[in-house]
Amino acid sequence: MGSSSPARPELTRMEISSAVHPDAFDLYRDAAAGLFESHLGTQDFFCRTESYDLGVAVLSRFESAEQTFFRTRKQARLSDVDHVHLNIDLTGTWTGDYDGESIKGGRGTLRISNLARPFANYSTDFATLNLVVSRSALGPAWADRDIHGLVMTDRNPGVRLLLAHMHHFWDSIGALSMDEAVAASTAAGALIEGVLSGRLDRNPVYRKPIERTLFAIACAYIERHLIDERLTPDAVGAHLGVSRRTVYRLFRDSGGVGAYVQGRRLDRAFDVVANSTDKAASLAEIAYDHGFLSAAHFSRAFRTRFGATPGEVRGLSKIYPPRPPAPETGSERIIDWLRRMP
Questions:
Q1: pTM
Q2: How many CA atoms within 13 Å lie on the side-chain side of 121?
Q3: Higher per-residue confidence, 186 vs 145
Q4: pLDDT at position 138, please?
Q5: Please, which residues bridge with residue 120 across strands?
Q6: Residue 117 contacts by C-beta under 8 Å, 6 or more apart in sequence?
Q7: Cβ count within 10 A of residue 304
């Protein structure tokens, strides 16, 4: 008997536009009534949402036209939703009133609110990344902090890590199992707690999903600096804000930092060699341009990785095509998900 595929987070989408639906805003306002009221700021309305149910959290991306949101005390009481809302602004600007305190933000801002309390928020055309987390899944730091309307920026290194984790989480969500998605949302909660308490603990429960994020950031950094001779484990660690030991741990399954960097340099050199001719740059020049100090070392490493020498591959792009670049690495249903969260 074959094993069944691992369970994955349930997905729901909504896309409405006044260009298609004359009553688009009314449809949207009725759909959102269980969460907030909304006043339209423009006649050309559009809204696109994509949301995933993680059991203990809901992850979503929300893009919409200018509008003003209200969550009243009555809605907060009747919706029976007492969760923490983490909001990352991708585009647009906003101003808000949270229990009488005026706050504002824009692209890159991290905002935390308590869905059990009212708020008013005006936004220009915007896109946001959102995580609604069950209170029961969060740690003790939340009990002592009034986080409703708390705004943070990436000047805080812990916030930078949290923002990177959330972006990587969203980019990966379609490929994650439910267990992996829950682990990633738990790690986000741990990072938020770490920011609030001033400590980014490396609890083993949270380490794996956080390290996946760090690994993705490290790979992107390496790709941007692949030919830089100053690309070292220390440089990667300085970019991530972690120790050399942590960097080595991140690349343990890739054979180490040096092996990963050399592999990526060879992958890039393969494309150049396969598309070059004898009249183009010499193999020694290609080797040097890709971080190798000698043609002999380049040739040995090339053959080990690809099973052929650079000379055998040269000009054979039709047989060996270039390798692809490394990867950078309905509302009622959502309300139901929120109500079922512990």
A1: 0.62
A2: 24
A3: 186
A4: 65
A5: 70, 97
A6: 71, 76, 98, 99, 148
A7: 10
Question: How far, in Å, CA of 271 to CA of 314, rounded?
Answer: 9
SS3 category, 197: helix
The structure tokens 């990667």 sit at 236
pLDDT at position 91 is 94
Q: Which residues contact 314 (CB under 8 A, 6 or more apart)?
A: 273, 274, 276, 277, 278, 283
Query: pLDDT tens digit string along 75-98?
Result: 777 666 778 889 999 999 999 898
Task: Supply the mean pLDDT for the chain.
Answer: 78
Q: Tell me the fold of 10-169.
A: Jelly Rolls (2.60.120)
202-328 has CATH 3.40.190.290 classification: no
* pLDDT, position 26: 80
- Which comes out higher in pLDDT, residue 241 or 58? 58
The domains of the chain are located at 10-169, 202-328
Do the beta carbons of residue 42 and residue 65 sit within 8 Å? yes
First to last CA, the chain: 35
DSSP, collapsed to helix, strand or coil, labels residue 70 as: strand
- Is residue 134 helix, strand or coil? strand
